[in-house]
Specification:
heterodimer, A: 305 residues, alpha+beta, 2 domains, four-stranded antiparallel beta sheet, 13 strands, B: 278 residues, five-stranded antiparallel beta sheet, 7 helices, globular
Chain lengths: 305, 278
């Protein structure tokens, strides 16, 4: 073999290895920690979670702490993905090797993390600091109400229970979104979201409505019901610039945070399949309403009966 | 082998020379360094010659008229600056240029058709004629004593330079940020330091005879709420003393750095501009 050819082959191999190294170093093989039930609960119940902590350039398990268990075997956990995201408190009713059981829409409460811990972005918060943060954010009354809502110390109400298969999804690359089985990348999320936004009173500038101004859409799968319907969290934003004469112009970016339920064949009822979240740290009432509208966990023939 | 090495060496030198002589040039190399020097110390929003990626930007300067005393009325524009400027200098020599501070310029927004105007190679004199009315031009000339003897008491001067000068008091970015935060705190606006950012275009404008330096600090602040995030652009004028200190009570916020003549006058007054420091 000629020397030049050998050099070319070596360079090509080195480039491929480098690319593989970059992609692999950013990937996440899935949750390896000891609380897969709490992990799955947050993954399926709390909007806008990634299921992994980004620790600059790698992903790692989110931080989950077991705080307490009751006499029935319920467990109270603390969950944090990163210091910019919310701190969530979740109660698992019970779990087996492959299933976690919880009271849907009542099993998690989330708190916004304060500005000061932003400085720890991409760093792991020590457990002790996570606990003191929890003590600071969650009052005794809130905790007590949350426990009561979840029948803490009482027998499990089987009628209220919902379940999810234990999941430990990985992340292939830094750009991947959480995907369900329904193919959604070709959905016209943009128009669907803007229609609802306008109905809800958003003053969306003309440039976004007519398609001249770009919008990034983030579509993240959350959960599947017994009949294959999927719950998705979709996020985007539009900008409104301030009055003229100010240079450069200050602007406000308005978030559009929606939840949508899609049928297994990708169809949906355009009048009812989507709802806007007023606060993604307090989504329970809106998730409940949307599920009711779309017949979540009901056989297809029986919806609306 | 020797031949190949020589060839490689020559190629490297050639490539480097081309790169150094074109892409990196951020000095003004044309015929009006005096006009540029006066512009750079008077207009808060201009950058001078700038360099971005592989493209260097030099200002366009065009003499429109001179009077019998040797004053020059000229047009100045920078590609990345959203305003056209018209200025008058009183006189210049090989070392210095003289002007009436704060009265020597007019600025006009370029408007949305700016790029099409530039690509059509319009006659700048015609364009200026459309920008400014005869009355406005007369008033501007009168303010600068056009065709009258130069009033040396009104004059200020600056060194002739070919690139916009940097300040000598060298306030660090952290220090400027502290001054900006102190300014907002004094107005009961709390900004988390993480949300305060200084733009790279924050710049030194000019200095007085005693070493006080005037800066335009372009900063932006992000303010978060549940459903929105607002980015405010704050342009702050501040005077930095020779020891690096700043009287933050004199800082002035300006909406538009290209239209802040009154604010510049005010901050100079508040900081005893051109009077000895105690």
């Amino acid at each position: 073999m000629k020397k030049q050819t050998k050099v070319k082959i070596c360079m090509l191999t080195a480039t491929v290895c480098l690319l593989l190294l970059i992609v692999c170093s950013c990937s996440y093989s899935g949750y390896k920690g000891e609380y897969p039930g709490a992990y799955t609960l947050v993954y399926t119940q709390v909007p806008d979670t990634r299921g992994a902590r980004f620790l600059g350039p790698n992903y790692d398990d989110p931080q989950i702490l077991l705080l307490e268990t009751d006499s029935i075997g319920r467990a109270l956990y603390l969950y944090l993905e990163d210091t910019e995201g919310p701190l969530s408190l979740v109660i698992v009713q019970k779990e087996s090797e492959d299933t976690v059981y919880f009271y849907p829409e009542d099993s998690a409460i989330s708190f916004r993390t304060p500005d000061r811990i932003y400085d720890l972005y991409e760093k792991k918060l020590p457990d002790s600091e996570l606990l003191s943060l929890y003590n600071e954010l969650c009052s005794a009354e809130e905790l007590s109400a949350f426990k009561e809502l979840n029948d803490w110390g009482k027998p499990i109400d089987e009628i209220r229970l919902d379940s999810a298969a234990i999941t430990r999804p990985g992340i292939d690359n830094p750009w991947s979104y959480r995907k369900g089985k329904v193919i959604t990348p070709f959905f016209n999320w943009r128009d669907l979201m803007l229609d609802l936004a306008v109905k809800n009173g958003h003053n969306v500038p003309e440039g976004f409505l007519n398609g001249n101004d770009g919008m990034n859409i983030y579509d993240s799968y959350m959960a599947t019901d017994k009949y294959g319907r999927e719950l998705h969290y979709i996020e985007s934003s539009y900008y409104v610039y301030s009055e003229e004469g100010v240079y450069p112009e200050s602007y406000t970016r308005y978030y559009l945070e929606m939840l949508a339920i899609i049928n297994p064949d990708g169809s949906f009822d355009p009048d009812s399949f989507m709802i806007e979240l007023s606060d993604k740290c307090d989504p329970d009432d809106e998730i409940r309403e949307l599920k009711e509208r779309c017949g979540w966990n009901q056989p297809f023939g029986e919806v609306g009966k | 082998m020797m031949k190949k090495t020589k060839l490689l060496l020559i190629t490297v030198i050639l490539v480097l020379s081309v790169f150094l002589s074109t892409g990196c040039r951020i000095e003004y190399g044309s015929e009006y360094p005096d006009l540029c020097s006066a512009t750079w110390v008077n207009l808060p929003g201009v950058s001078g010659c700038s360099f971005n990626g592989e493209i260097s930007y030099a200002p366009t300067v065009l003499v429109l008229e001179t009077d019998k005393e040797g004053r020059t009325l000229f047009f100045y524009q920078e590609d990345r600056n959203p305003y056209w400027h018209i200025l008058i200098i009183q006189k210049s020599d090989d070392e210095r240029v003289y002007y009436y501070p704060d009265d020597c310029y007019l600025s006009y927004p370029k408007g949305e058709d700016y790029w099409s105007v530039m690509s059509e190679e319009v006659d700048v004199k015609d364009m200026v004629h459309n920008l400014i009315s005869d009355e406005e031009l007369s008033a501007f000339k009168e303010l600068n004593d056009w065709d009258q003897p130069i009033n040396d008491e009104k004059c200020e001067s600056t060194d002739l330079v070919t690139r916009k000068a940097e300040g000598k008091n060298n306030p660090s970015e952290a220090r400027l940020e502290d001054y900006a935060l102190a300014y907002y705190e004094s107005r009961d606006i709390y900004i988390h330091p993480k949300n305060m950012n200084l733009a790279r275009s924050s710049r030194y404008i000019t200095c007085d005879s005693y070493g006080r330096e005037l800066y335009l600090i372009e900063s932006w602040v992000e303010n978060y709420s549940i459903k929105s995030e607002t980015t405010y652009y704050y342009n702050l004028l501040m005077v930095i003393m020779p020891d690096g200190s700043c009287d933050t009570s004199t800082i002035i916020q300006v909406d538009n750095p290209h239209e802040c003549r009154d604010a510049v006058k005010q901050i100079k007054l508040d900081n005893n501009w051109n009077t000895p420091i105690n």
